[in-house]
Amino acid sequence: MKLYHCTGSRSTRVLWLLEELGLDYEVEVLPFDPKALRSDDFLQLHPFGKVPVLVDDTVTLFDSVAIIQYLLVHYDEANRFHPSHESPHYGEFLSWLHFGESTLMQPVSQIAQHLFLLPEAERSKERLEEGKRIFEHYAKILEAKLTGKEYLVGNQFTAADIVVGYTVNAADQLGALPQECEALRAYIERLKQRPAFQKALST
Length: 203
What we know:
Blueprint: E1 2-5, H1 11-21, E2 26-29, H2 34-37, H3 40-45, E3 53-56, E4 59-62, H4 64-75, H5 90-102, H6 105-117, H7 125-146, H8 159-173, H9 182-192, H10 195-202
Parallel strand pairs: 1-2
Antiparallel strand pairs: 1-3, 3-4
Helix pairs in contact: 1-4, 1-8, 1-10, 5-8, 6-7, 7-9, 8-9
């Protein structure tokens, strides 16, 4: 099993789960550089030239949440990091798992783009502030969800916390996490104490 990874990118989520699962894997750390990600060889793995990519024997996957779902189905038979399909929490788990990328990541990406990723001439203060406002709205909903709880689903650590936690941590690094969201801040600090997350963040 081999993971293609860029430090700090969404592939951190996959690396985090691989560590939590205790799987044997190889990781190739690529520079966050269009030339490296759009080489002919890499485009054979990911037609859009992005990370992560996971190669597991004859299976090649891209998109961090798709890879996470694949790993849970094939390597988490004991349901350590997701509820069983029969669990009353399974629908909630899927909702939060996908929310962390499909909804929550959008304003975080917008903030990053208009803070430093785009060329300076293309950055917009209005778009930056818009991203912050949208993220703040989502953060307050998460704050209410996590008040009095340690984790999102069934008060048990799951892969939904990996997807959402990575995104909230990225927002915090960008200075976008509202100070008043005490439960959400405590949640991120709790996740950052996990050795698997520490390994993923440092790779």
